[in-house]
């Protein structure tokens, strides 16, 4: 059987993808922040350099003399990957020293207030500081203004950000893996009750149909255990029905088969053809009884098996069904000289199963013919009463005593009025069919003697 992968794998994948996304977003943010931090730190160094250049500038003999402090440049050039550029101009923009083509800022900076900016220089983006401040010479009481630009290639800042990024990504990846490992371990532990239940189910013996216990299991498993128990209960019911059917069938067949055997033995010894014919007729009757008994048993077993399942129903006219049954039974009633009449058959529409309805009416007609006897009167009628469809089967036979009216619905129960062969299943079938239609069967007296059976069907259609 093909399963849809393990839960562990599904969970890993569904955790890994979002974690990866988080990692990427975090990496981008980390790089961005690291770069900002690097800018803040390195800009300060740039400022120190620019400041020391500006502070080291003197006026000598009326001329500006830029004294490049070694320290400021060394500290910047200490790292091999950084290149430092500088440029000092006087107030009129005359170049004093440094890189003549170093790009100035867009706006002229205010005194002492440094301006930081990025600009393209020698094929790369460099970071620059522009500082403008006056230079005083107390001795000659002169003041001049200088503008200092110091630029620095960005490799160091980017390397710093990259370094931070790699460190963070490693840490995050490790944490992510740890989270997945923890989740998987928790899952393994969480699934333990399910494994225990599976082991319990597979260890069951075939004939052990006891319900599975619910206490001691996590509540999430309760629906599964409940469904399992429902299934087991269904199995138990089905097995019981089957067992009962086999026992009943054996019981039903035992007597007719014994009778048949006796008849065959007698027939074998019969010297006359007429006598043999007589035996054969008895054998046919036994066979007919046996086959009717088995048919009844099969019908009831089939009905009981279907109990609980949705019954396939259609819109039916009860009057139509009664007429059809009367037609089918006409040869039998004619033979038995039974007066079968349709009395007050009015159209009544309801939801029902046509085959089962025929079986029900057939059983009631069969009973009336059997127990009211030849020459009796049998009336079929329909009515709609209080939102229910009603079927009425009335005979003028011996009726059923009030004390027996419950008992006759039991399987294999034959009443005191029973005559001839019968299995005692007819009314059980009638009650089962009515029950599956949510209907009910009521036995009553016929005025002047006899049995009146009324079947009520609740699913009346207008
Ligand atoms: N119309 C009736 N008049 C008098 N007694 C009846 C009538 N219908 C049923 N009974 C009594 O009720 C009993 C049970 O009837 P039911 O139809 O269940 O079984 P059965 O007719 O004996 O056997 P089966 O119908 O299975 O061949 C009968 O044995 C009979 O005594
Ligand atoms: Mg019967």
Automatic annotation (TrEMBL):
Residues 188-240 form the HAMP domain. It is found in: Membrane. GO terms for cellular component: plasma membrane. Keywords: Kinase, Membrane, Phosphoprotein, Transferase, Transmembrane, Transmembrane helix, Two-component regulatory system. InterPro entries: 2CSK_N, HAMP_dom, HATPase_C_sf, HATPase_dom, His_kinase_dom, HisK_dim/P_dom, HisK_dim/P_sf, Sig_transdc_His_kin-like_C. Residues 248-461 form the Histidine kinase domain. It comes from the Bacteria. It catalyses: ATP + protein L-histidine = ADP + protein N-phospho-L-histidine. GO terms for molecular function: phosphorelay sensor kinase activity. Its main location: membrane. Pfam families: 2CSK_N (PF08521), HATPase_c (PF02518), HisKA (PF00512). Its EC number is 2.7.13.3. This is histidine kinase. It comes from Chitiniphilus eburneus.
